[in-house]
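Reminder to self: tokens first, then the designed residues, so the page reads top to bottom the way the pipeline ran.
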């Protein structure tokens, strides 16, 4: 008996569904699991975990924070670069901030958000205080926010300056610069509209090459970068050495040991594996008390 065309089509579709379900939903996943168990690949398939005393403490592929319960950096550990992934290094929320170089004005008031410039300035100031160096950098105020003015002209964008507002600073206190073009600078008031002013970043007197490296103040694209630059690691040597009762020379040797070279010898820059370095410090020079 010949089946109706519509029934034949449905049966064919059902057979295709069953075959593809078995192949792609059962055979292929089991094959990939088997491949992941091959010696030499199993560690990578499991996430490149690093163990201490038989327990996983992190991954070679994912950075992590070294802070106390209040979020303050632990002085005995090398610090990782900032992360924009969730609350920091969350592999389920990997992302960048998507803020660009023109993001220089903070959103003030309740629920406001700092601009990328202010984030960089705040991180640089905090890193400088932690490491005992000058945390200043161009276009940042001494208070750690973006040094940006709204300059109002008599004729819109031209003519004499009639008013100047420091967009990222609010009261109490004084603005980072007292006057601009002979006009007293005001502090910003949350909720007030300054859109008619010309946004004017002020470079200030910070050096062209800040003491705090760029990777100490900017997050990686993934937010999971496990490495820091050699410059940032060396900046932290004296602090870590003092906290552990080590000599700076011994600490620098450990940094050199866990510094990786350029990919293929010429791609990128050398980096320091923060997790491996901190584990080596715990093994060789544990913190007492």
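Designed residues (289 positions):
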């Amino acid at each position: 008996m010949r089946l109706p065309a519509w029934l034949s089509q449905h049966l064919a579709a059902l057979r295709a569904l069953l075959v593809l379900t078995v192949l792609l939903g059962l055979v292929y996943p089991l094959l990939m699991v088997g491949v992941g168990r091959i010696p030499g690949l199993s560690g990578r398939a499991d996430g490149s975990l690093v163990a201490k005393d038989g327990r996983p403490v992190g991954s070679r592929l994912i950075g992590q924070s070294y802070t106390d319960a209040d979020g303050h950096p632990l002085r005995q550990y090398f610090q990782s670069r900032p992360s924009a992934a969730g609350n920091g290094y969350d592999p389920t929320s990997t992302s960048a901030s998507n803020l660009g170089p023109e993001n220089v004005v903070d959103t003030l008031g309740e629920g406001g958000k700092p601009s990328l410039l202010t984030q960089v300035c705040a991180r640089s100031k905090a890193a400088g205080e932690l490491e005992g160096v000058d945390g200043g950098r161009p276009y940042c105020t001494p208070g750690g926010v973006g040094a940006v003015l709204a300059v109002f002209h008599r004729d819109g964008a031209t003519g004499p300056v009639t008013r100047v507002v420091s967009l990222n600073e609010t009261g109490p206190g004084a603005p980072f610069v007292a006057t601009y073009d002979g006009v007293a600078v005001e502090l910003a008031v949350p909720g007030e509209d300054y859109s008619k002013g010309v946004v004017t970043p002020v470079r200030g007197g910070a050096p062209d090459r800040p003491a705090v490296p760029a990777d100490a103040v900017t997050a990686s694209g993934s937010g999971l970068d496990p490495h820091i630059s050699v410059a940032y690691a060396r900046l932290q040597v004296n602090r870590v050495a003092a906290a552990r009762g080590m000599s700076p020379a011994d600490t620098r040797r450990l940094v050199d040991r866990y510094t990786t070279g350029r990919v293929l010898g010429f791609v990128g820059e050398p980096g320091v594996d923060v997790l491996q370095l901190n584990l080596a410090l715990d093994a060789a020079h544990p913190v007492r008390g």
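Helices lie at 5-36, 42-45, 116-131, 230-244, 248-257, 274-284.
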